[in-house]
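ok new one. same drill as before - structure tokens go in, u give me an amino acid for every spot. 58 of them this time. try not to just spam alanines like last time pls lmao
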């Protein structure tokens, strides 16, 4: 099961949609911006099948 997080690239501000595997707890993944191709880290907290919180780190 996947969910998607819409976020702004921390480098160029482009809108990115990142697919996230829904697991209980915290997931961390690295994604590349589609616009500038630079990688950022996404950390998502999931509870009861929903994303309760997320943040982006460079
Ligand atoms: Zn970018």
């Amino acid at each position: 099961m996947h969910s998607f997080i819409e976020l702004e690239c921390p480098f160029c501000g482009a809108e990115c949609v990142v697919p996230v595997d829904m697991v209980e707890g915290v997931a961390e993944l690295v994604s590349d911006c589609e616009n500038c191709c630079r990688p950022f880290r996404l950390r998502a907290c999931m509870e009861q099948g929903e994303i309760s919180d997320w943040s982006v780190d460079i």
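The pocket of zinc ion is lined by residues 9, 11-12, 14, 33, 35-36, 38 (CB under 6 Å). and btw Residues 6 and 17 are 5 Å apart (CA to CA).
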